[in-house]
Amino acid sequence: MSPRGCRNVRNARWQAWVPCGMLLRMMQVSGNVALPTANAGPKRGQFNAEVMSNIAICREHFILRLRVTHFPPSEPGQFVQVLCGPDVAIGVPEAAPAAAYSEVCWEPGSVPPAFHDAALLGPAPYLRRPFSIAGRRDNPASGYSEIDLIYRVIGKATGQMAALAVGDSISILGPLGHGFSLPREMTTALLVGGGVGIPPMIYLAEKLQRQRINALAFIGAQRADLIPLHITGAVGLEPALNVREFATFDTPTVIATDDGSLGQKGFVTRALQQFCQSKPQTGAVVFCCGPTPMMRATALVAAEFNLTCYASLEQPMACGMGTCQSCVIKYRPPGAEDWVYKLTCKDGPVFNTTDILWQ
Ligand SMILES: Cc1cc2nc3c(=O)[nH]c(=O)nc-3n(C[C@H](O)[C@H](O)[C@H](O)COP(=O)(O)OP(=O)(O)OC[C@H]3O[C@@H](n4cnc5c(N)ncnc54)[C@H](O)[C@@H]3O)c2cc1C
Ligand code: FES
After folding, report:
1. Percent of the chain with pLDDT over 90
2. Based on CB atoms within 10 Å of each CB, which residue in 4, 120, 149, 191 is the most buried?
3. 32 and 172: one domain?
């Protein structure tokens, strides 16, 4: 019998003994599984997705097209949690061969070992990673949906995603969170996307076109080679249908780069501000996603012109479904005296920017 403090660890799947191990197992388990949902909440589930293509689109960015069966309805601004490593079913130790186990021991009262050993932890990123839905096409006859994710390779999980090949299977969890709602009185939508915040704006442009609402996109990046979009025409300072992903949905685009290598030189928020100064934007609503400083600046521009503004926050997340509390933000709706914590994954990721206490 193992001494106190010793545990079996199967391929370093140490979640069997960490607090919340049950939750973590659920986050990694494979197969199509419906997850419990609050009565009023949107439907969600866990799905095996087949890679249809995974193509480099610009420096460090890829577009991953997945085929999923019976994926629940989703809205722009919602996201999926991707298990980026190989598709491994876990949580059934009885069925695993003895060689798949190793013993980890420490004396009662001593400090448990730190699990920094790469071999012990295994090659796969332990937690799922969140990615906004960038586009979706449904085939009701077959029950298949194509889901687009656009991602930038910045670390372990996204590095492994870049190695996915056509036909590979990965596990996704979603659709998660609450997407953008479209105010009834809105006449024009001003979409502001920066860096990896651009993908949900493409999906939003598609919904706006379906609802016959005029839209204009402001796209920001550090440099021209970090814009994960297809530029199809000359880029000037005026809005133009020169970006394929947005032009497809009749959405003219303004591009701004920090170094001026394409479009307007400077931050995308400056481009938005200049546009709002050029003519009154009565009835316009701003939707934004990107780095926190960019969204905070967008909120200020919107306030300057008295425009409603919604932001889709990209707070680092662990579970993505309201359990781990790792994604809290400070929130204070208008009129309230005190702020409260909200969960970006479950209560958001979309919030009215006036309700957020930006930090
Ligand atoms: C709701 C939501 C939607 C997202 N949508 C997209 C998307 O459409 N496309 C896309 O490319 N990325 C998106 N992200 C960010 C994406 O989840 C991270 O890039 C990814 O988790 C990185 O995993 P990694 O293992 O490659 O990097 P890691 O090794 O985990 O991290 C590498 C470095 O990046 C930092 N980092 C990781 N995640 C974040 C974050 N969310 N904010 C700030 N810094 C971070 C880490 O602190 C670390 O320094 C989204 C995040 C959220 C919360
Ligand atoms: S990511 Fe776990 S509660 Fe939000």
Report:
1. 70
2. 191
3. yes
